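Notes to self after the Tuesday call (sharing in case useful).
The group wants a holo model before anyone commits to mutagenesis around the pocket. I volunteered. Ligand is shikimate-3-phosphate. Logging inputs and output together so the record is complete.
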Amino acid sequence: MRNPLNQIAVKDRPNLYLIGFMGVGKSAVGRGVAKKLGLEFLDSDREIEIKEGRAISAIFAEEGEAAFRQMERRFMEEGHPKTSHVVSCGGGLPMGPGMTELLKSSGIVVCMFASAETILSRVAGNDKRPLLSVENPEERIRSLLAEREPVYMKTGIGVSADRRGLFDVIENVARVYVREAMNRRKGMIRKVKREDGNG
Ligand code: S3P
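Result:
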């Protein structure tokens, strides 16, 4: 079957933003989706680390979380290309004031979900996430999830990443992207036609 996305030049394809909690698999899925759809892949954490020349954990330790959130905001506002990229976003990126709107106006947003148990099993033993370097990471995950889930939900189209294989999630996210990109295109064509009719 022909790929409907071919109707949109690669340079004009909207960005796809993957949001969701730490450990849901945004980066692995993002890479797979980018490859499948012929887009470039970016990771907000990685881009910030490159720009700053230090690890996220060092930024948290040296300047604190608020400074890191500002760096995420700058990344969203001016720190990445505006089209043809799949962007895996740090778990807290959508949380700041106005970030929901900024994400939505920047491209197609997909929110990946998993249960606290799945997340815990995926992040266990990884010391790269300063927010979970606490005595009781499970409790932390549950309280952060409760705070964040409503924001994730109103920002992105939900896709479950719980107990599903990587390939399956990639397929699902890619399908959502193609559907949304084609709907936008149709909307744009309708708008141009309306404007032509009035002119
Ligand atoms: C954070 C998530 C991390 C990273 C930082 C803070 C969060 O990214 O940005 O440690 O607040 O949820 P991942 O979601 O890619 O792990």
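Two things stood out.
Helices lie at 26-37, 44-52, 56-63, 65-78, 99-106, 116-123, 137-155, 166-198.
The CA atoms of residues 69 and 93 lie 7 Å apart.
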